[in-house]
Amino acid sequence: MPTISLSPHFTLQELTATKRKLQNKPDANAVERLRLLCQHVLEPLRELYGEAIQVNSGYRSPAVNAAVGGAPTSQHLRGEAADITTGKLEGNRRLLGIALEHARELGFDQLIAEKSNTYGYPRWLHISYSDRKRRQQFIVT
Ligand SMILES: [Zn+2]
How many C-beta neighbours within 10 Å does residue 109 have? Predict the structure, then answer.
């Protein structure tokens, strides 16, 4: 499959990658939602952070979502969410701060700091984009 760009620094391949040997092909609507997620949230976040951001999990087919224990209503199923990391706890803490500071412009739907340690450094961030733009924020430890 040729590389398909969703935004300057993010590709469809990254947003649909899975380590599981399971089908994980989004339909056209999910691809469009992934594109909106990249253009409105991930790309601006990367720009503000100033370094590469890795996507651990983006779109999930029902089979992949079930395999990783995702919620049945997970926004990953719709192509609206991504779990992202800078690869460093300090970087993730900085990225969280940037996301909170720029919540208004980014217009994310949900932002979850996942598995934060006692100093508030998350292992990864779950961030979603949809037309609801709730800008909800949660810290999960
Ligand atoms: Zn997630």
Answer: 19
Residue labelled with tokens 């224990």: 69
Q: What is the pLDDT of residues 57-79, one digit of tens each?
A: 999 999 999 999 999 999 999 99
- Structural domain tally of the chain? 1
24 φ, ψ (degrees, to nearest 5) = -145, 50
1 found inside a domain: no
Domain holding 84: CATH number?
3.30.1380.10
CA of 25 to the centre of ligand 1 (A): 17
Q: By residue range, what is the domain housing residue 32?
A: 6-139
pLDDT digits (tens, 9 = 90+) for 12-47: 999 999 999 999 999 999 999 999 999 999 999 999
Distance 75 CA to ligand 1 centre (A): 8
